[in-house]
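Journal club side-thread
Mid-discussion, someone asked how the predicted structure for our own chain would compare to the paper's figures. Pasting it here so we can look after the session.
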Amino acid sequence: MRLRPEVSSGLCVLHGAGPLRLIIGLAAVVTCLAADPAAIHRLDGSRISITEAGDFSRTTLAATHVTGAQIAVLDRGRLIWSAAFGHRRLDPPLPMDRETTTWAASITKSVFSTYVMQLVERGEFNLDTPIAKQLPQPLDTYDAYRETASELVKDPAWPLVTPRILLAHTSGLLNFAILEPDKKMHLHFKPGTQFNYSGEGINLVQFVIEQQKHQLLDQLMEQALFTPLGMTRTGIIYRKDFESNVADRYDSAERFRSQTRRFPARGAGSMTTSADDLARFASALFAGNILKPATRKTMLKPFIQLRTLHQFPLKPDEAPGTEGAVTGLAYGVGWGLLTHTRFGPAFFKEGHGDGAQNYMICFERRQACMILLTNSDNGELAFRPILEKILGDTVTPWEWEGYTPEYIDQSRKLQ
């Protein structure tokens, strides 16, 4: 299938006086407006003016000490508002703008899973053939897994692990093998029966595809998605052409953490991107320019229902939560799902890394999305007020996501 970039026909307006290089601090640098230049239509049909949306975002980000942020809103599958706030770098002070590439962290997983579904659609990859059968030799005989998979391949449940199970985070693997006492991969329950978030599982699917395609993931996804969609600020690995406008990352006290230069390619979380590029991706996904509607439906079909209090429990014996039942919280192929809300079904993905807190949610009925990317450990503190005020999203499972001040405070104490 040929992909074409989704181009907004909206008007782009520069705010503030003087050259762009002088516009720093927590101010919206650029705003992109579509058909209605005055307002954003919330999910419930009410409206918020572009000015109010920008002012509210600026105030909220400042109050929560978010160093820099990008926000994009889609409606009816089209980009209607996009803005950048704050700094991409503090020393010297440089503004975040809409072209700044930021670390997407685990939003990578969902974009990677969408690429996997392209292969499935073309008959080039099977979601339900066990991993052990898709490799020509045992996993632990490959250099990349010689140490970590030596116990995994001995497990009688290993032949049950399929790409679909891995992409739905139900394999039984921990997030990463390094978290295991022996630093090796283990299955902690029968594959396909429980949810346990695992970046290790996503990277395993990547490994199988790279073996089959004889190409690295950064090349494969550049050819399949980023170039055809005009996602010029996106890469699975850091590229030299990002150098002039890339976001550094900052901790909760706004102290420098790291530059954003992700190597090697990892389907679980190495992608850098911009909110505008993710808007192009979402717009093309809704338009059927990435996947056929039937394939997208397969990707967003619930594989497992979720009833836990938190996605990442603060303690092993946490009681179940109520948000899952209320929203129809589930997981499909690489995407979190809300299967029954008053706004219709939605798919979402968060990105959580050192100095990078991100969230993306899309409602299928309205083809409405909000994308929030930050270069700050404080980013998640701003998500709920901004999503509720601007998009009218009152259904994201805030507690399950850990987007409450109490959860964030407790999780920081455990680190």
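Post-session note: The CA atoms of residues 295 and 384 lie 31 Å apart.
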